[in-house]
Description:
Helices cover 48% and strands 19% of the residues. By secondary structure, the protein is of the alpha/beta class. The strands form two sheets. The protein has a four-stranded mixed sheet with strand order 4-5-6-7, with helices on one face. α5 packs across α6 (101-113). The protein is elongated and about 55 Å long. The termini are far apart. Residues 60-65 and 143-150 have low confidence and may be disordered.
Amino acid sequence: MLKADRTARILAHITEAGSADVHELAGLLQVSPATVRRDLQELHEQGLLHRTRGGAVTGAVNLELPLRHKHGTRQAEKRRIALAADRLVPDGSVVGLTGGTTTSELARVLAERGGITIVTNAVNIAADLIVRPDVRLVVGGGGGGGPEFS
């Protein structure tokens, strides 16, 4: 099993259960406890979970899997949702998108089609679309004095 898959499964398990111990995770992943310990330490250093003696907990660090770890999960389903949503958007529309992995997939599908305006506050979506000449991109920012658009 690839390390990225292992860490994603660790995060998913701990997020769902609230905590897990090293031996439980080793059995789940079919790897050695030493491998799990290294993975937990790395995830702790990234701020994705709290390392405890013998395991890890979510604590207040993050109740939702971070975007970079969720991106690859259920990708086929996200693509189907995005394609279905795309059929509902008329040409020339203005579409508002918040952050999330499914909305990121929708942004990619809409960008492939072109001819629309996407308004977003999600940095990852903006970064994906900034290089798309067929999409008008509006990114909402903020600085305490109200919305700013560029």
